[in-house]
């Protein structure tokens, strides 16, 4: 049993025999697989939740794999996309990777190479999910702060001492200390350095 047995792998390919061969390979390694014979079919009923990835043929009738990828980007799809391509479509696949696709494999490909890419995509998805969970938890803590506590937070991050903060906010040092103590508790920070590092990391994630 693999470490991603609860993951869903969506295959989008118009070649039924090829889809069936991928389903057999993936299910024999305990993956859960959902097949789609076109990009349109996927988009009609695609709601990515939890751990998963997409395996997409780059050239299909109707909406191409690249067009599907652009639509998924527009929809904020969180799952990694692995492209399958023929030799002539490698340049397109390279462009897709530059746009954020996880990887591409040129047909015909080695089964173990395919499984390794899928496992890598799922690992990337798991990492991204963990980052989102950290970000969401941090934002919840920020949202729990009062307006005054948020002001104190910003001034503490700027490296200002309690006396300076008190002067700037027109309140007593004891009041600053009270706000600061509550703010530190709510943010789950053990020290000012811990707090500053957490805020900087959070803002870097948002900027990225």
TrEMBL record:
Listed name of the protein: Two-component system response regulator
Pfam families, A to Z: GerE, Response_reg
Domain Response regulatory: 8-122
InterPro entries listed in its UniProt record: CheY-like_superfamily, Sig_transdc_resp-reg_C-effctor, Sig_transdc_resp-reg_receiver, Tscrpt_reg_LuxR_C, WH-like_DNA-bd_sf
Coiled coil: none
Residues that bear 4-aspartylphosphate: 57
Top-level taxonomy: Bacteria, Pseudomonadati, Pseudomonadota, Betaproteobacteria, Neisseriales
Signal peptide annotation: none
An annotated GO BP: phosphorelay signal transduction system
Keywords per UniProt: DNA-binding, Phosphoprotein, Transcription, Transcription regulation, Two-component regulatory system
Keyword Transcription recorded: yes
Highest taxon of source: Bacteria
């Amino acid at each position: 049993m693999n470490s991603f047995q609860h993951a869903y792998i969506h295959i989008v390919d118009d070649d039924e025999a090829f889809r069936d061969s991928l389903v057999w390979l993936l299910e024999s390694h305990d993956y859960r697989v959902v097949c789609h014979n076109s990009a349109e079919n996927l988009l009609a009923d695609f709601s990515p939740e939890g751990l998963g990835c997409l395996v997409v043929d780059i050239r299909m009738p109707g909406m191409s794999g690249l067009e599907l990828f652009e639509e998924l980007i527009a929809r904020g799809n969180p799952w990694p996309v692995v492209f399958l391509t023929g030799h002539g479509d490698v340049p397109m696949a390279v462009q897709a990777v530059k746009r954020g696709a996880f990887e591409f494999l040129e047909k015909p490909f080695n089964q173990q190479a395919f499984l390794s890419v899928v496992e890598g995509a799922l690992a990337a998805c798991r990492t991204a999910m963990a980052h989102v969970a950290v970000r969401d938890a941090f934002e919840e803590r920020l949202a729990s702060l009062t307006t005054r506590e948020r002001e104190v937070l910003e001034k503490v991050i700027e490296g200002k001492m309690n006396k300076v903060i008190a002067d700037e906010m027109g309140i007593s040092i004891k009041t600053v200390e009270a706000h600061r103590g509550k703010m530190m508790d709510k943010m789950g920070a053990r020290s000012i350095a811990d707090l500053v590092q957490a805020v900087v990391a959070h803002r870097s994630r948002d900027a990225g």
